Amino acid sequence: MPDTPLLKDTMKLHGISRRGFMKYCATLASVMALPPMMAPRIAEALETARRPSVIWLSFQECTGCTEAITRSHAPTIEDLIFNAISLDYHHTLQAASGHAAEAAREHAMKENYGKYVVVVDGSIPIKDPGFSCIAGISNLDMLKETAAGAAAIVSVGTCAAYGGVGHAAPNPTGAVAVSEIIKDKPIINVPGCPPIPVVMTGVLAHFLTFGIPELDELARPKAFFGESIHDRCYRRPFYDKGMFAESFDDEGARGGWCLYKLGCKGPTTKSACATVKWNNGVSFPIEAGHPCLGCTEPDFWDNGGFYKPLSVPAGDYRKLGVAAVAGGAAVGAASALLSRAGKAKAVREHETVDAHDLEKPS
Ligand code: FSX
Q: What would the DSSP string read from start to end of 117-182?
């Protein structure tokens, strides 16, 4: 079986200069939350790595994840990653259709058995597998068949990671996450509806360079999901001072105050939105004046309540902020809320969680 080309040869072919490549590695180091001195190690690993075959499966989803990863300004690290991987199958992006498309998937699986990476976006219907089929193959069968020879699976988007919008009540298709079907392969969850493009490509870059990244309890890479949006939000000083916007057109909203009372889920949402941001680092929802919807967390469609505040007693907003200043306890409490299993503990300690949240199924 012929080996795939070395990355350094592919990059040369695409006219990527040494200077551009090193700049890219420095950016990757920062995106992966690694110190700048790791850039040469990333460069070394990327140069000697072989382009992995990637089979991208899209199931029950809105194509937002693919839109996100492709809508970027060139040249970007997203472009580079597309040069650095061999994207052998992707319903939306591939030119082939019909039998030729399926032949490409089968060929990639056969030629790269045990080495290819499967990226999945979208949930899988199990109530009746016939609800969603590609080339006459149910999503369930295609996932099982393709995952069998994979080295690892990357579940991109909240739908693939936790079931997402398809899983939301009343979940008519019985939509489930990839991890509920595949139990014998490493799975990396990259949630978000959609995920940040740089985070998607950063995870693929990490896999190329250093293998599977360190994951949290929800199988998310800690480098990108290690902190809550609240931890790094530029509006955090207003939160700590108890200064909250009460409506979308009041003095607080115009002054850029904290959006917590307008339903912001930043305290319970782990994501790199506040640091990496979107559209080449231009902005992110809170910076645009909108509360975080918590889209990187399980069941956010059901639990989010978009404009419903996390806590009810008004006095406790400030109490949480003071606790955070005192020693990060509030951040700890917010993190505890991330885990549905941690909800009861959080309530015992801080009594600031809305009872509505506790009634959600675990
Ligand atoms: Fe889901 Fe992605 Fe939201 Fe949409 O593929 S995570 S509905 S952005 O498209 O799966």
A: EEEEESBEE-S-GGGSEETTEEHHHHHHHHHTTEEEEEEEHHHHHH-HHHHSTT-TT-EE-GGGT-
